[in-house]
Protein backbone atom coordinates (compact mmCIF):
# COMPACT_ATOMS: atom_id res chain seq x y z
CA UNK A 1 0.00 0.00 0.00
CA UNK A 2 1.09 3.56 -0.69
CA UNK A 3 1.97 5.97 2.05
CA UNK A 4 -0.40 8.60 3.37
CA UNK A 5 0.51 11.77 5.22
CA UNK A 6 -2.12 13.17 7.58
CA UNK A 7 -1.66 16.58 9.18
CA UNK A 8 -3.65 18.14 12.02
CA UNK A 9 -3.50 21.84 12.81
CA UNK A 10 -5.54 24.33 14.80
CA UNK A 11 -4.77 27.78 16.19
CA UNK A 12 -1.89 29.28 14.19
CA UNK A 13 -2.00 26.41 11.74
CA UNK A 14 -2.29 28.36 8.50
CA UNK A 15 1.12 30.00 8.79
CA UNK A 16 2.72 26.72 9.80
CA UNK A 17 1.01 24.83 6.99
CA UNK A 18 2.25 27.43 4.51
CA UNK A 19 5.83 26.92 5.68
CA UNK A 20 5.55 23.16 5.41
CA UNK A 21 3.84 23.08 2.02
CA UNK A 22 6.35 25.59 0.66
CA UNK A 23 9.17 23.26 1.65
CA UNK A 24 7.80 20.17 -0.08
CA UNK A 25 9.55 18.76 -3.13
CA UNK A 26 7.70 18.79 -6.45
CA UNK A 27 8.49 15.09 -6.60
CA UNK A 28 6.62 14.47 -3.36
CA UNK A 29 4.97 11.13 -3.96
CA UNK A 30 2.43 10.60 -1.19
CA UNK A 31 -1.04 12.08 -0.83
CA UNK A 32 -1.41 14.54 2.06
CA UNK A 33 -4.70 14.99 3.96
CA UNK A 34 -5.04 18.01 6.25
CA UNK A 35 -7.49 18.87 8.99
CA UNK A 36 -7.19 22.54 9.91
CA UNK A 37 -9.78 23.60 12.47
CA UNK A 38 -11.85 26.46 11.15
CA UNK A 39 -15.19 28.13 11.50
CA UNK A 40 -18.04 26.11 10.04
CA UNK A 41 -19.16 28.90 7.76
CA UNK A 42 -15.70 29.46 6.35
CA UNK A 43 -15.50 29.36 2.60
CA UNK A 44 -13.00 27.84 0.25
CA UNK A 45 -10.59 30.80 0.60
CA UNK A 46 -8.21 28.62 2.57
CA UNK A 47 -7.54 26.40 -0.42
CA UNK A 48 -6.53 29.41 -2.50
CA UNK A 49 -4.45 30.92 0.28
CA UNK A 50 -2.47 27.71 0.73
CA UNK A 51 -2.17 27.00 -2.99
CA UNK A 52 -0.12 30.18 -3.43
CA UNK A 53 2.61 28.56 -1.36
CA UNK A 54 2.36 24.95 -2.41
CA UNK A 55 4.18 23.24 -5.27
CA UNK A 56 1.56 20.48 -5.06
CA UNK A 57 -2.07 20.95 -6.14
CA UNK A 58 -4.51 21.51 -3.24
CA UNK A 59 -8.12 20.38 -3.20
CA UNK A 60 -10.96 20.66 -0.75
CA UNK A 61 -12.34 17.14 -0.46
CA UNK A 62 -15.68 16.12 -1.91
CA UNK A 63 -17.23 12.89 -0.72
CA UNK A 64 -15.64 9.74 -2.25
CA UNK A 65 -12.85 11.68 -3.98
CA UNK A 66 -10.00 9.37 -4.95
CA UNK A 67 -6.80 9.65 -2.89
CA UNK A 68 -4.08 10.41 -5.41
CA UNK A 69 -0.34 10.72 -4.81
CA UNK A 70 1.09 14.20 -5.17
CA UNK A 71 -2.11 15.96 -4.09
CA UNK A 72 -2.83 17.90 -0.92
CA UNK A 73 -6.39 17.44 0.37
CA UNK A 74 -8.13 19.76 2.83
CA UNK A 75 -11.00 18.71 5.08
CA UNK A 76 -14.01 20.91 4.22
CA UNK A 77 -15.50 23.15 6.91
CA UNK A 78 -18.11 21.43 9.10
CA UNK A 79 -17.45 17.87 7.84
CA UNK A 80 -15.34 15.09 9.33
CA UNK A 81 -12.78 13.70 6.90
CA UNK A 82 -12.12 9.95 6.90
CA UNK A 83 -9.99 7.80 4.63
CA UNK A 84 -10.52 4.37 3.16
CA UNK A 85 -7.87 2.48 1.19
CA UNK A 86 -8.34 4.49 -2.03
CA UNK A 87 -10.84 7.25 -1.38
CA UNK A 88 -12.12 9.78 1.13
CA UNK A 89 -15.38 9.60 3.05
CA UNK A 90 -17.06 12.60 4.66
CA UNK A 91 -19.44 12.61 7.59
CA UNK A 92 -21.54 15.14 9.50
CA UNK A 93 -21.49 13.08 12.68
CA UNK A 94 -21.35 15.01 15.94
CA UNK A 95 -18.23 17.07 16.55
CA UNK A 96 -15.51 15.14 18.41
CA UNK A 97 -14.10 17.21 21.30
CA UNK A 98 -16.00 20.19 19.89
CA UNK A 99 -14.28 19.86 16.51
CA UNK A 100 -15.66 19.08 13.08
CA UNK A 101 -13.52 18.35 11.17
CA UNK A 102 -11.73 16.46 13.92
CA UNK A 103 -8.06 15.52 13.72
CA UNK A 104 -8.67 12.37 15.79
CA UNK A 105 -11.31 11.17 13.30
CA UNK A 106 -8.94 11.58 10.34
CA UNK A 107 -5.95 10.06 12.14
CA UNK A 108 -7.88 7.07 13.50
CA UNK A 109 -9.32 6.20 10.10
CA UNK A 110 -5.88 6.60 8.51
CA UNK A 111 -4.39 4.28 11.13
CA UNK A 112 -6.94 1.68 10.17
CA UNK A 113 -6.67 1.91 6.41
CA UNK A 114 -2.97 2.73 6.01
CA UNK A 115 -1.53 1.24 9.22
CA UNK A 116 2.28 1.47 9.23
CA UNK A 117 2.22 3.42 5.97
CA UNK A 118 0.65 6.38 7.79
CA UNK A 119 2.69 9.43 8.67
CA UNK A 120 0.85 11.66 11.15
CA UNK A 121 1.91 15.25 11.78
CA UNK A 122 0.61 17.30 14.72
CA UNK A 123 1.07 21.04 14.49
CA UNK A 124 0.21 24.10 16.57
CA UNK A 125 -3.14 24.31 18.36
CA UNK A 126 -4.89 25.34 21.55
CA UNK A 127 -6.75 22.08 22.21
CA UNK A 128 -5.99 18.38 22.52
CA UNK A 129 -7.47 17.14 19.26
CA UNK A 130 -5.13 14.73 17.49
CA UNK A 131 -3.48 13.24 20.58
CA UNK A 132 -5.61 10.09 20.54
CA UNK A 133 -5.36 9.86 16.76
CA UNK A 134 -1.57 10.11 16.90
CA UNK A 135 -1.43 7.29 19.41
CA UNK A 136 -3.73 5.19 17.16
CA UNK A 137 -1.28 5.69 14.29
CA UNK A 138 1.64 4.67 16.51
CA UNK A 139 -0.25 1.57 17.66
CA UNK A 140 -0.52 0.51 14.01
CA UNK A 141 3.20 0.98 13.46
CA UNK A 142 2.93 4.33 11.70
CA UNK A 143 5.18 7.36 12.03
CA UNK A 144 4.45 10.45 14.13
CA UNK A 145 6.00 13.88 13.73
CA UNK A 146 5.13 16.60 16.22
CA UNK A 147 5.91 20.27 15.84
CA UNK A 148 8.52 21.38 18.38
CA UNK A 149 6.18 23.02 20.97
CA UNK A 150 8.40 26.06 21.46
CA UNK A 151 7.99 26.91 17.76
CA UNK A 152 4.17 26.65 17.89
CA UNK A 153 1.75 29.59 18.12
CA UNK A 154 0.01 27.49 20.75
CA UNK A 155 1.94 24.63 22.33
CA UNK A 156 -1.12 22.89 23.79
CA UNK A 157 -1.83 20.55 20.91
CA UNK A 158 1.73 19.38 20.21
CA UNK A 159 2.31 18.97 23.94
CA UNK A 160 -0.87 16.90 24.33
CA UNK A 161 0.26 14.64 21.49
CA UNK A 162 3.71 14.23 23.05
CA UNK A 163 2.10 13.30 26.37
CA UNK A 164 -0.14 10.74 24.71
CA UNK A 165 2.35 8.98 22.48
CA UNK A 166 6.02 8.73 21.54
CA UNK A 167 6.83 10.87 18.53
CA UNK A 168 9.41 9.67 16.02
CA UNK A 169 10.44 13.26 15.41
CA UNK A 170 9.86 16.57 17.20
CA UNK A 171 10.79 19.31 14.76
CA UNK A 172 10.28 22.97 13.80
CA UNK A 173 8.12 23.52 10.67
CA UNK A 174 10.93 23.90 8.10
CA UNK A 175 12.49 20.65 9.23
CA UNK A 176 9.12 18.91 9.15
CA UNK A 177 8.98 19.65 5.42
CA UNK A 178 12.49 18.28 4.98
CA UNK A 179 11.66 15.16 6.94
CA UNK A 180 8.50 14.54 4.90
CA UNK A 181 10.52 14.95 1.69
CA UNK A 182 12.99 12.38 2.93
CA UNK A 183 10.21 9.97 3.85
CA UNK A 184 8.07 10.44 0.75
CA UNK A 185 9.89 11.93 -2.19
CA UNK A 186 10.24 9.74 -5.27
CA UNK A 187 13.98 9.29 -4.84
CA UNK A 188 13.60 7.75 -1.40
CA UNK A 189 11.44 5.00 -2.84
CA UNK A 190 14.05 3.81 -5.32
CA UNK B 1 4.19 -13.50 14.25
CA UNK B 2 0.82 -11.83 13.92
CA UNK B 3 0.62 -8.43 15.54
CA UNK B 4 -2.25 -8.90 18.00
CA UNK B 5 -3.49 -5.33 17.60
CA UNK B 6 -3.74 -5.33 13.81
CA UNK B 7 -5.21 -8.82 13.77
CA UNK B 8 -7.86 -7.56 16.17
CA UNK B 9 -8.72 -4.85 13.66
CA UNK B 10 -9.17 -7.40 10.91
CA UNK B 11 -11.24 -9.62 13.16
CA UNK B 12 -13.47 -6.64 13.86
CA UNK B 13 -13.97 -6.16 10.10
CA UNK B 14 -15.18 -9.75 9.87
CA UNK B 15 -17.48 -9.27 12.84
CA UNK B 16 -18.96 -6.14 11.29
CA UNK B 17 -19.67 -8.01 8.04
CA UNK B 18 -21.40 -10.74 10.03
CA UNK B 19 -23.42 -8.23 12.03
CA UNK B 20 -24.64 -6.41 8.92
CA UNK B 21 -25.42 -9.65 7.11
CA UNK B 22 -27.34 -10.94 10.14
CA UNK B 23 -29.39 -7.76 10.45
CA UNK B 24 -30.18 -7.86 6.74
CA UNK B 25 -31.16 -11.53 6.70
CA UNK B 26 -33.22 -11.39 9.87
CA UNK B 27 -34.76 -7.91 9.87
CA UNK B 28 -34.36 -6.75 6.26
CA UNK B 29 -32.45 -3.54 7.09
CA UNK B 30 -29.57 -3.30 4.66
CA UNK B 31 -26.45 -1.49 5.90
CA UNK B 32 -24.07 -3.64 3.87
CA UNK B 33 -23.31 -0.82 1.46
CA UNK B 34 -22.78 1.93 3.97
CA UNK B 35 -19.41 3.70 3.85
CA UNK B 36 -17.28 1.50 6.08
CA UNK B 37 -15.12 4.10 7.81
CA UNK B 38 -18.00 6.22 9.11
CA UNK B 39 -20.15 3.16 9.86
CA UNK B 40 -17.33 1.68 11.93
CA UNK B 41 -17.09 4.80 14.07
CA UNK B 42 -20.79 4.61 14.80
CA UNK B 43 -20.62 0.90 15.64
CA UNK B 44 -17.73 1.54 18.04
CA UNK B 45 -19.73 4.30 19.67
CA UNK B 46 -22.62 1.85 20.15
CA UNK B 47 -20.24 -0.64 21.79
CA UNK B 48 -19.24 2.09 24.25
CA UNK B 49 -22.78 3.15 25.03
CA UNK B 50 -24.06 -0.43 25.32
CA UNK B 51 -20.99 -1.35 27.33
CA UNK B 52 -20.08 -4.25 25.05
CA UNK B 53 -16.57 -5.51 24.31
CA UNK B 54 -16.98 -6.93 20.83
CA UNK B 55 -19.09 -6.52 17.72
CA UNK B 56 -20.02 -10.19 18.11
CA UNK B 57 -21.60 -9.38 21.48
CA UNK B 58 -23.52 -6.57 19.80
CA UNK B 59 -24.65 -8.99 17.10
CA UNK B 60 -25.96 -11.38 19.75
CA UNK B 61 -27.85 -8.57 21.46
CA UNK B 62 -29.30 -6.99 18.31
CA UNK B 63 -30.49 -10.30 16.87
CA UNK B 64 -32.13 -11.48 20.08
CA UNK B 65 -33.53 -8.29 21.60
CA UNK B 66 -35.81 -6.19 19.41
CA UNK B 67 -35.42 -3.13 21.68
CA UNK B 68 -31.70 -3.34 21.13
CA UNK B 69 -32.31 -3.31 17.37
CA UNK B 70 -34.29 -0.07 17.74
CA UNK B 71 -31.40 1.57 19.59
CA UNK B 72 -29.01 0.26 16.96
CA UNK B 73 -31.09 1.68 14.10
CA UNK B 74 -31.25 5.10 15.73
CA UNK B 75 -27.55 5.18 16.43
CA UNK B 76 -26.63 4.08 12.91
CA UNK B 77 -29.04 6.12 10.83
CA UNK B 78 -29.78 9.40 12.58
CA UNK B 79 -27.92 12.36 11.21
CA UNK B 80 -28.14 15.26 13.57
CA UNK B 81 -28.43 18.45 11.62
CA UNK B 82 -29.71 21.96 12.22
CA UNK B 83 -32.38 24.04 10.58
CA UNK B 84 -30.96 26.08 7.70
CA UNK B 85 -27.65 24.20 7.73
CA UNK B 86 -25.53 25.86 5.02
CA UNK B 87 -27.49 29.12 4.78
CA UNK B 88 -25.91 29.80 1.37
CA UNK B 89 -27.81 26.81 0.00
CA UNK B 90 -31.16 28.31 1.02
CA UNK B 91 -30.20 31.67 -0.50
CA UNK B 92 -29.33 29.90 -3.74
CA UNK B 93 -32.58 27.95 -3.58
CA UNK B 94 -34.57 31.17 -3.16
CA UNK B 95 -32.73 32.91 -5.98
CA UNK B 96 -32.26 30.13 -8.52
CA UNK B 97 -34.89 27.48 -7.88
CA UNK B 98 -37.92 29.38 -6.60
CA UNK B 99 -38.31 31.34 -9.90
CA UNK B 100 -38.40 28.03 -11.79
CA UNK B 101 -40.97 26.60 -9.39
CA UNK B 102 -43.23 29.61 -9.85
CA UNK B 103 -43.96 28.36 -13.37
CA UNK B 104 -45.57 25.16 -12.05
CA UNK B 105 -49.22 25.03 -10.96
CA UNK B 106 -48.47 22.20 -8.57
CA UNK B 107 -45.11 21.24 -7.07
CA UNK B 108 -44.11 17.87 -5.69
CA UNK B 109 -40.98 17.81 -3.51
CA UNK B 110 -39.21 14.76 -2.12
CA UNK B 111 -37.04 15.18 0.93
CA UNK B 112 -35.10 11.90 0.90
CA UNK B 113 -33.51 11.01 4.25
CA UNK B 114 -35.25 13.78 6.21
CA UNK B 115 -34.00 12.51 9.60
CA UNK B 116 -35.56 14.56 12.42
CA UNK B 117 -37.09 16.99 9.97
CA UNK B 118 -35.08 20.16 10.56
CA UNK B 119 -34.44 20.66 6.88
CA UNK B 120 -38.03 19.88 5.90
CA UNK B 121 -39.35 22.62 8.17
CA UNK B 122 -36.64 24.96 6.90
CA UNK B 123 -37.80 24.35 3.35
CA UNK B 124 -41.47 24.72 4.30
CA UNK B 125 -40.63 28.13 5.80
CA UNK B 126 -38.77 29.21 2.65
CA UNK B 127 -41.66 28.11 0.42
CA UNK B 128 -44.19 29.87 2.64
CA UNK B 129 -42.21 33.09 2.56
CA UNK B 130 -41.94 32.83 -1.22
CA UNK B 131 -45.70 32.34 -1.50
CA UNK B 132 -45.36 28.87 -3.01
CA UNK B 133 -46.18 26.62 -0.11
CA UNK B 134 -49.89 26.28 -0.90
CA UNK B 135 -49.00 24.79 -4.28
CA UNK B 136 -46.52 22.32 -2.79
CA UNK B 137 -46.70 18.83 -1.51
CA UNK B 138 -43.56 17.77 0.35
CA UNK B 139 -42.90 14.05 0.78
CA UNK B 140 -40.48 13.70 3.68
CA UNK B 141 -39.09 10.20 4.02
CA UNK B 142 -36.59 8.41 6.18
CA UNK B 143 -35.67 4.77 6.68
CA UNK B 144 -36.22 5.05 10.42
CA UNK B 145 -39.77 4.97 11.76
CA UNK B 146 -38.93 6.55 15.11
CA UNK B 147 -37.17 9.43 13.44
CA UNK B 148 -40.20 10.03 11.21
CA UNK B 149 -42.40 10.29 14.30
CA UNK B 150 -40.04 12.84 15.76
CA UNK B 151 -39.97 14.79 12.52
CA UNK B 152 -43.76 14.78 12.39
CA UNK B 153 -43.99 16.23 15.90
CA UNK B 154 -42.02 19.33 14.88
CA UNK B 155 -40.67 19.68 18.42
CA UNK B 156 -37.06 20.70 19.01
CA UNK B 157 -35.17 21.80 22.11
CA UNK B 158 -35.70 25.50 22.78
CA UNK B 159 -31.98 25.79 23.49
CA UNK B 160 -31.30 25.43 19.76
CA UNK B 161 -33.52 28.33 18.70
CA UNK B 162 -30.88 31.00 19.11
CA UNK B 163 -28.58 29.19 16.69
CA UNK B 164 -31.46 28.41 14.29
CA UNK B 165 -32.51 32.06 14.33
CA UNK B 166 -29.01 33.11 13.28
CA UNK B 167 -28.97 30.59 10.46
CA UNK B 168 -32.52 31.54 9.40
CA UNK B 169 -31.44 35.16 9.01
CA UNK B 170 -28.27 34.21 7.13
CA UNK B 171 -30.41 32.04 4.88
CA UNK B 172 -32.41 35.08 3.78
CA UNK B 173 -35.29 34.74 6.25
CA UNK B 174 -37.86 37.49 5.75
CA UNK B 175 -39.72 37.45 9.05
CA UNK B 176 -38.97 36.96 12.68
CA UNK B 177 -38.02 33.32 13.22
CA UNK B 178 -39.98 33.16 16.48
CA UNK B 179 -43.21 33.52 14.46
CA UNK B 180 -42.79 29.93 13.38
CA UNK B 181 -42.82 28.25 16.76
CA UNK B 182 -44.32 28.49 20.21
CA UNK B 183 -42.21 27.89 23.29
CA UNK B 184 -43.42 25.34 25.80
CA UNK B 185 -41.12 24.61 28.73
CA UNK B 186 -37.85 23.40 27.21
CA UNK B 187 -39.29 22.89 23.75
CA UNK B 188 -40.06 24.86 20.64
CA UNK B 189 -43.12 23.50 18.84
CA UNK B 190 -43.26 24.44 15.18
CA UNK B 191 -46.56 25.71 13.79
CA UNK B 192 -48.89 22.99 12.60
CA UNK B 193 -49.63 25.02 9.46
CA UNK B 194 -46.03 24.36 8.32
CA UNK B 195 -46.98 20.69 8.24
CA UNK B 196 -50.18 21.10 6.26
CA UNK B 197 -48.63 20.02 2.98
CA UNK B 198 -45.99 17.66 4.29
CA UNK B 199 -46.47 13.90 4.07
CA UNK B 200 -44.10 12.02 6.38
CA UNK B 201 -43.50 8.39 5.56
CA UNK B 202 -41.02 5.58 5.84
CA UNK B 203 -38.84 4.91 2.80
CA UNK B 204 -35.51 3.15 2.68
CA UNK B 205 -33.13 4.42 0.00
CA UNK B 206 -31.15 1.19 0.18
CA UNK B 207 -34.04 -1.15 -0.55
CA UNK B 208 -37.24 0.70 -1.62
CA UNK B 209 -38.29 1.89 -5.06
CA UNK B 210 -39.49 5.07 -6.69
CA UNK B 211 -42.98 6.08 -5.52
CA UNK B 212 -43.83 9.22 -7.47
CA UNK B 213 -42.50 11.79 -9.91
CA UNK B 214 -41.10 14.97 -8.40
CA UNK B 215 -40.17 18.48 -9.43
CA UNK B 216 -37.57 18.75 -6.68
CA UNK B 217 -35.58 16.10 -4.83
CA UNK B 218 -33.53 17.15 -1.81
CA UNK B 219 -31.02 14.70 -0.40
CA UNK B 220 -28.32 16.59 1.44
CA UNK B 221 -25.55 14.91 3.44
CA UNK B 222 -27.23 11.53 3.29
CA UNK B 223 -25.32 9.91 0.42
CA UNK B 224 -22.00 10.55 2.17
CA UNK B 225 -22.89 7.65 4.47
CA UNK B 226 -23.24 5.25 1.52
CA UNK B 227 -20.52 3.53 -0.48
CA UNK B 228 -20.26 4.10 -4.22
CA UNK B 229 -22.38 1.06 -5.10
CA UNK B 230 -25.28 2.26 -2.99
CA UNK B 231 -24.78 5.85 -4.14
CA UNK B 232 -25.23 4.64 -7.73
CA UNK B 233 -28.43 2.84 -6.77
CA UNK B 234 -29.84 5.95 -5.12
CA UNK B 235 -28.86 8.15 -8.07
CA UNK B 236 -30.73 5.75 -10.32
CA UNK B 237 -33.74 6.04 -8.01
CA UNK B 238 -33.55 9.84 -8.13
CA UNK B 239 -33.21 9.82 -11.89
CA UNK B 240 -36.34 7.67 -12.18
CA UNK B 241 -38.21 9.89 -9.74
CA UNK B 242 -37.32 13.31 -11.15
CA UNK B 243 -39.40 14.86 -13.91
CA UNK B 244 -37.73 16.47 -16.88
CA UNK B 245 -36.24 19.81 -15.82
CA UNK B 246 -36.66 18.68 -12.22
CA UNK B 247 -34.21 19.92 -9.58
CA UNK B 248 -31.81 17.75 -7.57
CA UNK B 249 -30.18 19.23 -4.45
CA UNK B 250 -27.20 17.48 -2.87
CA UNK B 251 -25.00 18.39 0.10
CA UNK B 252 -22.28 21.03 -0.29
CA UNK B 253 -19.45 18.46 -0.47
CA UNK B 254 -21.34 15.83 -2.42
CA UNK B 255 -20.86 15.30 -6.10
CA UNK B 256 -22.99 14.23 -8.99
CA UNK B 257 -19.86 12.74 -10.57
CA UNK B 258 -20.70 9.37 -9.08
CA UNK B 259 -24.15 9.29 -10.62
CA UNK B 260 -24.35 7.08 -13.72
CA UNK B 261 -26.58 9.87 -15.11
CA UNK B 262 -24.17 12.74 -14.52
CA UNK B 263 -24.52 13.83 -18.14
CA UNK B 264 -28.28 14.18 -17.87
CA UNK B 265 -27.90 17.04 -15.39
CA UNK B 266 -26.68 20.61 -15.61
CA UNK B 267 -25.54 22.67 -12.65
CA UNK B 268 -27.97 25.40 -11.62
CA UNK B 269 -25.70 26.50 -8.79
CA UNK B 270 -22.40 24.67 -8.77
CA UNK B 271 -21.05 25.44 -5.30
CA UNK B 272 -24.35 24.64 -3.61
CA UNK B 273 -24.77 21.44 -5.63
CA UNK B 274 -28.11 22.31 -7.18
CA UNK B 275 -28.68 20.47 -10.46
CA UNK B 276 -31.38 20.33 -13.09
CA UNK B 277 -32.28 17.22 -15.04
CA UNK B 278 -32.18 17.96 -18.74
CA UNK B 279 -33.03 14.63 -20.31
Structure explained in plain terms:
The complex is a heterodimer of chains A (190) and B (279). Chain A is α/β, with parallel strands linked by helices. Chain A has a single domain, classed as Methylesterase CheB, C-terminal domain (Rossmann fold, 3-Layer(aba) Sandwich), CATH 3.40.50. Chain A has helices at residues 13-22, 45-51, 103-114, 131-139, 156-164, 173-184, 186-189, and strands at 4-9, 32-36, 58-60, 72-74, 80-83, 88-91, 118-122, 143-147, 169-171. A seven-stranded parallel β-sheet of chain A has the order 3-4-2-1-7-8-9, with helices on both faces. In chain A, helix 1 packs across helix 6 (173-184). The two termini of chain A are 16 Å apart. The mean pLDDT of chain A is 94. Chain B is α/β, with parallel strands linked by helices and 279 residues long. Chain B folds into two domains: 4-77; 87-277, Vaccinia Virus protein VP39 (Rossmann fold). Chain B has a seven-stranded mixed β-sheet. In chain B, strands 3-5-4 form a three-stranded antiparallel β-sheet. In chain B, helix 1 packs parallel to helix 3 (55-64). Chain B is globular and about 55 Å long.
Order of helices and strands of chain B: HHHHHEHEHEHEEEEHEEE
| Gross morphology of chain B | globular
The CATH architecture of the largest domain in chain B would be 3-Layer(aba) Sandwich
Let me know the CATH homologous superfamily of chain A: Methylesterase CheB, C-terminal domain
Number of helical regions of chain A:
7
Oligomer: heterodimer
Q: Keywords for this structure?
A:
heterodimer; A: 190 residues; 9 strands; globular; B: 279 residues; alpha/beta; Rossmann fold; seven-stranded mixed beta sheet; three-stranded antiparallel beta sheet
Record the SSE blueprint.
The complex is a heterodimer of chains A (190) and B (279).
Chain A: E1 4-9, H1 13-22, E2 32-36, H2 45-51, E3 58-60, E4 72-74, E5 80-83, E6 88-91, H3 103-114, E7 118-122, H4 131-139, E8 143-147, H5 156-164, E9 169-171, H6 173-184, H7 186-189
Parallel strand pairs in A: 1-2, 1-7, 2-4, 3-4, 7-8, 8-9
Antiparallel strand pairs in A: 5-6
Helix pairs in contact in A: 1-6, 3-4, 4-5
Chain B: H1 4-27, H2 36-50, H3 55-64, H4 66-77, H5 87-101, E1 107-112, H6 118-129, E2 136-142, H7 145-153, E3 155-157, H8 161-170, E4 181-184, E5 187-190, E6 198-202, E7 214-219, H9 228-241, E8 242-250, E9 265-269, E10 274-277
Helix pairs in contact in B: 1-3, 3-4
Amino acid sequence: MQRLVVIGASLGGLTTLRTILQGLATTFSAPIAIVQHRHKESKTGMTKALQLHSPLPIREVEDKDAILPGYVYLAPADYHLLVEPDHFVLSVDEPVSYARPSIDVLFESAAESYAEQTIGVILTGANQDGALGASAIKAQGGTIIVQEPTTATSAVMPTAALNQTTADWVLPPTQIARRLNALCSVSSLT
Amino acid sequence: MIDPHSSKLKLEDIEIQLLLEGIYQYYGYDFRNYAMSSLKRRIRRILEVENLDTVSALQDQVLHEPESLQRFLLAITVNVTSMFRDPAFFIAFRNQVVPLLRTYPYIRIWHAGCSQGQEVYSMAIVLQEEGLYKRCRIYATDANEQVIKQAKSGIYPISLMQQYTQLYLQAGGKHSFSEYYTAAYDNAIFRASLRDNIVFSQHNLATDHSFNEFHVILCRNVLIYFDQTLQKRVHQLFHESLCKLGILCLGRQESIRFSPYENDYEAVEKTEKIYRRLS
